[in-house]
Amino acid sequence: MNKKKQGKKFNREFDQRKALIQGLARALFLNSRIKTTTAKAKELKRFAEKFITTAKKGDISSRRRLGRYFSDALVKKLVDEIAPKYKDRDGGYTRVIKLDVRKSDGASVSIIELV
């Protein structure tokens, strides 16, 4: 029986989609706030929350798991600086704030930020 696939495709192949999400997550963790389309922000929220939950464990296994997606410096920042802020929080680490539409192509734009 076919089940519904989760997530948006963004008219990209799997590896391109993965690179897009990784790049957005990298920018989010470095800057703690980015401006992107609403669809990309909602999709990024799913992955960013999983990354932060993994980083909250702080053990070597979680560092290695995060190391598959990010550089060593970013993993260190994520585990040592960002994750301890959310140690008492069970989820909802990010917030999506909707803005207007972009003039050039009419896409709805949002800001995604760490709470």
Note down, in words, how this protein is organized.
The structure is a single chain. By secondary structure, this protein is α+β, with helices and mostly antiparallel strands. It has a single domain (15-114), classed as 50s Ribosomal Protein L17, Chain: A, CATH 3.90.1030. It is built from four helices and three strands, in the order H-E-H-H-H-E-E. It has a three-stranded antiparallel beta sheet. Strand 2 and strand 3 form a beta hairpin. Helix 1 crosses helix 2 (38-57) and helix 2 (38-57) crosses helix 4. It starts with 13 loop residues before the first helix and ends with a strand.
CATH class label: Alpha Beta
Helix segment tally: 4
Give me the Rg, rounded.
Answer: 15 Å
Q: What order do the SSEs take from the amino end to the carboxyl end, as H and E?
A: HEHHHEE
Low-pLDDT residue intervals, each spanning 5 or more residues: none
- CATH topology (fold) name: 50s Ribosomal Protein L17, Chain: A
CATH superfamily: Ribosomal protein L17
C-alpha geometry:
globular
Taken together, the total number of domains comes to: 1
Strand order of the largest sheet: 1-3-2
Structural class: alpha+beta
CATH architecture: Alpha-Beta Complex
What fraction strand?
Answer: 15-25%
What is the CA-CA span between the terminal residues?
Answer: 39 Å
Helix-residue proportion: 40-55%
